[in-house]
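Example S7 (structure tokens).
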């Protein structure tokens, strides 16, 4: 599945067909997809950093600005997003257990990652036009959690075996 196909399919979440198609994607594909999404999300901040004429690092060469941006913006943001996705997926595991769904952490992490597509794109577009607080990203994870809960309820419940 190409990344463009993943992107288009993730826009259709929480539909059942989209869920099951995205579930077939490998974990490595989901992680690379998240790196690409985070690169897109960081474009407004990169533009701001490269065009800054005052402040910390304004007099640096463009290569050093890129290194600075990567080290002090993109990497920390990536770590925080991956940690937040993991927390959302762990909460999803708890909800799946309560509702007796047979879902593992890896599946829920992938689905959580794909649910962030719409909020991340909205954040990117809005930030290009206006200054938006990074608190919006916290709201994005609330959206991801709510969508994950909805998707968990679509999965069938565990079969119970009766002993005689």
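Recovered sequence:
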């Amino acid at each position: 599945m190409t990344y463009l196909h993943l992107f288009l399919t993730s826009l259709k979440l929480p539909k059942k067909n989209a869920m099951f198609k995205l579930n077939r994607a490998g974990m490595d594909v989901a992680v690379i997809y998240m790196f690409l999404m985070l690169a897109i999300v960081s474009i407004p901040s990169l533009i701001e950093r490269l065009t800054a004429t005052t402040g910390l690092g304004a007099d640096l060469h463009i290569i050093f600005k890129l290194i600075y941006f990567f080290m002090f913006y993109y990497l920390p943001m990536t770590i925080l997003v991956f940690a937040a996705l993991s927390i959302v997926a762990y909460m999803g595991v708890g909800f799946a257990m309560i509702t007796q769904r047979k879902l593992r952490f890896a599946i829920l992490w992938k689905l959580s990652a794909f649910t962030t597509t719409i909020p991340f794109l909205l954040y990117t577009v809005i930030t290009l036009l206006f200054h938006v607080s990074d608190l919006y990203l916290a709201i994005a994870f609330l959206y991801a959690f709510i969508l994950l809960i909805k998707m968990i309820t679509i999965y069938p419940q565990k079969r119970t075996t009766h002993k005689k």
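Notes on this example. The chain is about 75% helix and 0% strand.
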